[in-house]
Amino acid sequence: MPRLRLLSGGTALLRSFMPGLCTVFLLGGGSAAPARADGVLPQTIVKYRVYAHGFNVMDIQASYRLSESQYGITARVKTGGFFGMFMKTNLQTSAQGHFSGAEVEPALFDSAGWSRGRNRHVSVVYRDQMPEVTLIDPVETDRESVPAADKLGAIDTLSALMNLLHQVRTSQSCGGQEKVFDGMRLSTLSIHPAGLQHIPSGGPLDWGEDALRCDFVAQQTEGFKFSSEKSKLRNPQPGRAWFEKVGEAGFVAVRVEVDHPKLGRITIVMDGPPQQAS
What top-level branch of life does the organism fall under (predicted)? Predict the structure, then answer.
């Protein structure tokens, strides 16, 4: 497989879901810090490596603060390893929000940096469960728009990931359906529990013996480029995430797999133990 196709496909995957959804899971520097009565929540810092066909194509750093009622997260996605010499991606994304019972309610989402050959910036605010794009640069005129009615109730990628981690921490389970909007594309995300399982081999690190597995299916439904009528990216993208308690950080995502319709299996593996900072 040509390396440029591999890199561009991996970038598209992380842009549309993880990373990150990614990235899940996902540092940049500091993140918004939800407050609590007895002080400031500790910041959890995690690092991940993204592999496709055995090659390290992306690196993810993330820092987040997560309580029962609030969250703040910042994530940076960069091309990594040998492939960083041929194609540059350097994106920083951030999100803030809170939880209302079992529901996540995002407040802000921002993504900025170098991707697909130029600097790009998208900002979204949320009012009454409606995502409102306040900045998109450059405007992509070759892409279909997403009607406002279809965006109602949609959340951003990072908020979806924080909601999943919040579920795992509070209930030791996972499940549900979300609409995910990144400022241009609308997707569906379905999650269901798959029980405790030994973490698969194949990554550079193994953590513990058993982890909570959550299976998911992500599928873009709107916001396609006009030229992508027959694109395989319209197909569902099934995946799996493993969460494990690691030291003081508590439950963290230690491994994620996504079955990409063009690139095959994408694997995201935690690189080193999570760190705690004030």
Answer: Bacteria
Residue 233 carries which DSSP code?
G
What tokens were used for 255? 């491994």
User: What is the C-alpha separation between 117 and 123, in angstroms, rounded?
Assistant: 19
Element (H, E) at 39: strand 39-40
DSSP summary character for residue 83: G
Q: Which residues pair with 264 in a beta bridge?
A: 260
* DSSP code at position 155: B
Torsion, CA 217, CA 145, CA 157, CA 180, rounded to 10: -50
State the DSSP string of 107-134.
EEEEEEEEETTEEEEEEEEEETTEEEEE
Q: Using one digit for the tens of pLDDT, what is the confidence trace for 173-225?
A: 999 999 999 999 999 999 999 999 888 875 556 666 689 999 999 999 999 98
Rounded CA Rg of the chain: 17
- pTM of the complete model: 0.83
Report residue 215 CA to chain centroid gap.
15
- Measure Cα distances from 24 to 16, 144, 210, 224 in Å: 12, 27, 20, 23
Tally Cβ neighbours within 10 Å of residue 132: 12
- The DSSP call for residue 146 is -
Backbone angles phi, psi at 162, to 5 degrees: -65, -35
53 vs 130: CA distance, rounded Å: 38
Residue 170's DSSP bridge partners are: none
Instruction: Count CB-CB contacts under 10 A for residue 19.
Output: 29
Q: Kindly report the CA angle at 275 between 104 and 25, in degrees rounded to 5?
A: 35
Per-residue tokens: 71: 């969250």
Question: What does the pLDDT look like over 75-89, one tens digit per residue?
Answer: 999 987 666 666 788
Instruction: Show the tokens assigned to 109.
Output: 């989402």
